[in-house]
Amino acid sequence: MEKAFYEEKITKTLSVLKEELNSVRAGRANAALLDQITVDYYGTACPIKNIANISVPDARTLMITPFDPSTVKLIEKSILASSLGINPSNDGKNIRLVIPVVTEERRKELTKVIKKMGEDAKVAVRNVRRDANDQLKKEEKASQITEDDLKSSLDEIQKMTDKGIKDIDTMISAKEKELMEI
Fold first, then answer.
1. Dist. CA 46–CA 35, nearest whole Å
2. What are phi and psi of 25, to 5 degrees?
3. d(CA 155, CA 16)
4. What count of other Cβ atoms lies within 10 Å of the Cβ of residue 13?
5. CA 47 to CA 36: how far, in whole Å?
6. How far is CA 76 from each of CA 84, 107, 175, rounded to the nearest angstrom?
7. What CA–CA distance (Å, rounded) separates 57 from 55?
8. pTM for this entry
9. What b-and-e string marks burial along 51-78, b requiring 16 or more CB atoms within 10 Å of the CB?
10. Taking CA 168 as the corner, what is the angle to CA 167 and CA 174, rounded to the nearest 5 degrees?
11. How many CB atoms lie within 10 A of CB 132?
């Protein structure tokens, strides 16, 4: 059994969760808010960051400057169609997104969304553990590893799982704290 393989899967799960958490609108302007939005650019779905420069002129504003000015309308349409809930304004060359202040009710909704993301990540980590344990048991049944090796490997997998879940909890509580401070 390749321990590094399962460790890498857990690490990938954590990085995906981190990206998802960055895309949650927390009241301040952050270019990562636009990471999940794609624009239909000449028949290809492209992330906004690939076809435009994204800057943060102040704490509540995102400025999108397309490399090709003809894509302003396409980008604006994609932002409106997204679940961001922000109305873009354009001046023909740039698109401005003014991030509204987050209400208490919206904070509670976002907290629920964040907790669900955390739970989904935990399930993914537990699935990795299950797959690793199944693989180990198959190897032991096929006499590829001893019973002692099985036990020590199962313990290692459990420790990796516990660490992954602890990291997820830390990320979720940090994001919740960030949301409540706004």
1. 10
2. -70, 115
3. 25
4. 21
5. 7
6. 12, 26, 28
7. 6
8. 0.69
9. bbebeeeeeeebbbebeeeebbebbbeb
10. 90
11. 25
DSSP string, the chain: --HHHHHHHHHHHHHHHHHHHHTS--SS--GGGGTT-EEEETTEEEEHHHHEEEEEEETTEEEEEESSGGGHHHHHHHHHHSSS----EE-SS-EEEEPPPPPHHHHHHHHHHHHHHHHHHHHHHHHHHHHHHHHHHHHHHTTSS-HHHHHHHHHHHHHHHHHHHHHHHHHHHHHHHHHHH-
Residue appearing with tokens 């907790």: 115
Give, in degrees to the nearest 5, the angle at Cα 151 between 148 and 156. 125
| Radius of gyration, alpha carbons of the chain | 22
- Is the distance from CB of 53 to CB of 67 less than 8 angstroms? yes
pLDDT tens, residue order, the chain (182 aa): 578 888 999 999 999 998 888 777 666 777 777 877 888 888 888 888 888 888 888 878 889 898 888 888 888 888 888 777 778 888 888 889 888 777 788 788 888 889 999 999 999 999 999 999 999 889 888 888 888 888 998 999 999 999 999 999 999 998 888 887 76
